[in-house]
Amino acid sequence: MATVSSRPLVRDDPLRLVDRFAASAAVDEDAFMSTAEFSAWFTARQRSHAFSVRRIPFAELAGWSFVGDGGELRHQSGKFFTVEGLRVHDPAGPVTEWHQPIMNQPEIGVLGLLVKEFDGVLHFLMQAKMEPGNVNLVQLSPTVQATRSNYSRVHKGAGVKYIEYFTAPGRGPVLVDSAQSEHGTWFLGKRNRNMVVETAADVPLDDDYCWLTLGQIARLLRIDNLVNMDIRTVLSCVPLTTDTRGVHTMGEVLSWLTEARATHQLTTAPVPLAGLPDWRQDAERIFRPDERFFSVIAVEASADNREVKSWTQPIFHPHGQGVAAFLHRRIEGVPHVLAHARREAGLRENVEIGPTVQATPDNYRTPCEEMRPDFLDDVLHADPSRILFDAVLSEEGGRLFHAQSRYMIIEADDGIPIDAPPGYLWLSPYQFDALLRHPCYVNVQARTLVACLKSLR
Amino acid sequence: MATVSSRPLVRDDPLRLVDRFAASAAVDEDAFMSTAEFSAWFTARQRSHAFSVRRIPFAELAGWSFVGDGGELRHQSGKFFTVEGLRVHDPAGPVTEWHQPIMNQPEIGVLGLLVKEFDGVLHFLMQAKMEPGNVNLVQLSPTVQATRSNYSRVHKGAGVKYIEYFTAPGRGPVLVDSAQSEHGTWFLGKRNRNMVVETAADVPLDDDYCWLTLGQIARLLRIDNLVNMDIRTVLSCVPLTTDTRGVHTMGEVLSWLTEARATHQLTTAPVPLAGLPDWRQDAERIFRPDERFFSVIAVEASADNREVKSWTQPIFHPHGQGVAAFLHRRIEGVPHVLAHARREAGLRENVEIGPTVQATPDNYRTPCEEMRPDFLDDVLHADPSRILFDAVLSEEGGRLFHAQSRYMIIEADDGIPIDAPPGYLWLSPYQFDALLRHPCYVNVQARTLVACLKSLR
Hints:
The structure is a homodimer. By secondary structure, chain A is of the alpha+beta class.
């Protein structure tokens, strides 16, 4: 390595990137590919491949089996993920102790969006991709969406397309790069690296990929089950705000979260999956007799354009449609949303910032009505004139089967005070931009809502 | 709760606090308590109490026992901490697998410095405190240094003095508040809340406490085994720099760390403490027959001014004195130190930013010479003219017995390039200020060195 004795200094400027992203967000009808062309292209992509998914008994899983003393469900390679048993102790919660299956996937994968300037405007390379858990099989995905097992080819399939733009030495400028958590109710400590990498290279365009502006993606976000979770989480990390004002300082926001993490801690311990209290296992499912929450099932999938043409895998099947919503209000003209410091068993730091409301209403039927979360009814019964955003969007289809949530942003009525109740705080878009440079502050449902918030005009 | 429909906005300004702290750092000889008066006061405090510590066999521990299937060492209350067995798998490390005892203390404690203006200058409330593991028993400690078990009075002792300034509703402005990790080689995911809270109240001054400026503390930091680890870690979080320049942008720094975390992951699994491979247990110690690394022992301590007058506890006894050092150079006039992305088994995110060198030289005797860390010899054999800081300081004496490290900052020679080798990066003081607003970026040894770096004139 050559010895360098000096080098020009750079000045830290976290707002530096905002202008370029904002310019892309302002373009929602593009010469490169119009919205009409996109629709035709996407429909063609859906039709051009043979995809199928069917549920199978656990015994038909290939390479997966219930092993060891605790009967965990593992792949023979030791890679991908395992389904394990977890005991959760949450002294301050409405339920103080429970057991559940959970997915353990310690590898940090890559969710990567490649960007390139065309006519001076940043465009994002999007992919039409099949996932076995998607209700409609094909959704719009990031350029790259790969676990380390995927791109290091544990499954001996073809290489992950475009991965070299994210991982090879000499790649282009990295505009966004932070590790973010995924669902703390289904994953134990899972996180993925959310990346936006710029290229000036002449990028060969595969049939299943297209270039879109941020403004175009913002429009597509309003269509049910089109823009997948992995795009939404990466987009939530794209800074778009130069207005650094808020009703609280960042110091206050960080201290609020530190306090929430220190005050009510939940603890977890691995337990055997076999014989997990309150859960049953039969040939096709691990489930609760009361059919609440979720079940673990198995599927066989085939897709002629995936790295591996057909495969079997376990997958989590949430029961009932979720609701995730932000209450929203302008304070002195600056938009704010009501954030909630939310404990989840699988989060590495126990507490992250969640939506105002994050719940599956079916779980609060009798006898659990008294546990109904704060603000749930404000959201479900909001006057239509107050609804700023409303779409049913899918959670990640590689690990979650038919997992859909209704994402809403609701203009708060005047009864909801700026002095938020304990556990809640009004945050501005800039504060989310600042938090999302760092790992594990904002949970995955809130990140989808942040992406939706950024899409509002 | 009153409904508030509006409120003045604040603008985020992370540099806002720097001037007030810098003014305190500029005062190193103070009218309130001179340096000579401090020495007399501290000596008097050491002499005014009866302290004693003696090693005992495990069988004499009161309230502690080896329990359960795995023989973990626990307190009967279930609080404080447990000593457990851990298996570590580090495929990219010089040693790819090992077993060790580790302390599991999931609670987030408080390390708190109370500050108050006298004559317009911020003063910090310091405590002369006995800890059983300190080589000299009494060191200078933060205002408050308490686990949650301590201040919620699990041990049924007296209340923790001054804790109400940190935890009570209506406390003063919180100037610093972030959860930071502790030694990843001895603690499993431990972190403490590092707080600086300001008060305008008339604070009653207990005999064991005194007010000092940042400049005075900086001077005391150069005295061996005086300023304890808990003060050092809180001071590392006190922002002192307005110069936001650096050889890298914050985006590059964060991406470098994200990549280090994603690339080489180590995994850990709890295993029984009883029969831990490579370790032996007798009546007084859990240790390795080769006497490397550390042992687990037990002590009986008494101190007539502690919340509990006498107690017994297990404690970790590191073998050999550690070395932690930053290589330092000015680049275009701006100070930089060479940071290392360091994997440690007990860190929640596996990798944090560590010193250029962090090692216990005794561990690299035959047959381990070939594992000698990079830069260790540059540090140990540095020309005295290049040594900017050099003091032997203690690690936390509540859990660690006679744990001392030599902390050094060494002016790098020209052979060490600005294009740092893989895993290393040159960071500026501002970048540490920015990182230390957030949890678990900078490990505890590097935080001591950051405090030392800030003390340099």
